[in-house]
Amino acid sequence: MKPTEKRRGTMASTIKCLSVLELLAREPFEFGLFEISASLDAPKTSTHRLVATLMEAGFVEQDGDSRRYRLTGKALWVGTGFLRHSRVYRASFPVMQDLAGKTEGMVHLGLWDNDAVLYLHTVGHPSSLYLFANTGERRAVHATALGKVMLAYRSPEDLERIFSKEVERYTDKTITSLDAMRRELETIRDQGYALDDEEGVRGLRCLAAAIRDHKGQVVAAISMSAPTSVLAEDNRPHYASLVQEAAIRASVHAGYRPLTTNVSSLLTRPYEAGETSRRKSASPS
Question: What DSSP string describes 10-40?
Answer without folding.
Answer: HHHHHHHHHHHHHHHTSTTS-B-HHHHHHHH
